[in-house]
Design brief:
The protein has about 190 residues and is mainly α. It is built from seven helices and two strands; from the N terminus they run ααααββααα. Strands 1-2 form a two-stranded antiparallel sheet. A hairpin with a 2-residue loop joins β1 and β2. The two termini are about 50 Å apart.
Length: about 190
């Protein structure tokens, strides 16, 4: 026998890089074609361009949503086990991680997404509280805008202030929830 099988196998493994071996090439092809593990498409964003500051929260919460919806998390992990007690500190108190995951998931789907849909499709605070009381004529000089009545001017300015305060509140709440989501990432696949 000219070549020993062990030496031929070690020669193959020393020459052919791991990424170019037939089994690994087949796995990469299957992942590219069917199972795109590294591709996350946020379900609530259109296929068109959007700001990165809008894309990042959607991607993070999409990963959380896929974890809850596609993984059998309650069958694999004993979330409420007394011995292992998967708890983390949230706002000064210890909370079960499973409850924190569910809270973030529910907030995203029941509060933030309806808010965003209203904001972009009409029916938002702006449309209800500001649009009906817009000035008749815009004057950017010293005399100011012309309104139908002083009451309309008051409602217009109050509506803008209310709209801006609510937008700021939702931004702060989103940032707070994103921080909480980042804190539980190491525990998603425990």
């Amino acid at each position: 026998m000219l070549f020993n099988i062990d030496s031929l196998e070690s020669l193959y493994y020393s020459i052919v890089p791991y990424n170019y071996r037939p089994g690994n090439l087949w796995y990469q092809f299957i992942c590219w074609l069917w199972k795109r593990h590294s591709t996350v498409k946020p379900r609530y964003l259109p296929h068109t361009w959007c700001d990165k500051c809008v894309l990042a929260p959607h991607l993070m919460f999409e990963v959380l949503s896929k974890f809850i919806e596609e993984e059998s998390i309650d069958e694999i992990v004993a979330w409420y086990d007394i011995e292992w007690s998967h708890k983390i500190p949230v706002n000064g108190s210890l909370v079960y991680i499973r409850d924190e995951i569910q809270d973030l998931y529910d907030w995203w789907h029941k509060v933030y997404i309806p808010y965003e849909n209203e904001r972009y499709k009409g029916g938002s605070i702006w449309d209800i509280w500001v649009e009906p009381y817009k000035p008749i004529k815009y004057n950017y000089g010293k005399e100011g805008h012309q309104f139908k009545s002083p009451e309309d001017e008051f409602r217009y300015h109050w509506g803008i202030m209310f709209h801006n305060d609510f937008e700021r509140y939702m931004e702060v709440e989103l940032e707070h929830r994103l921080h909480r989501l980042v804190n539980i990432i190491p525990n998603l696949w425990c």
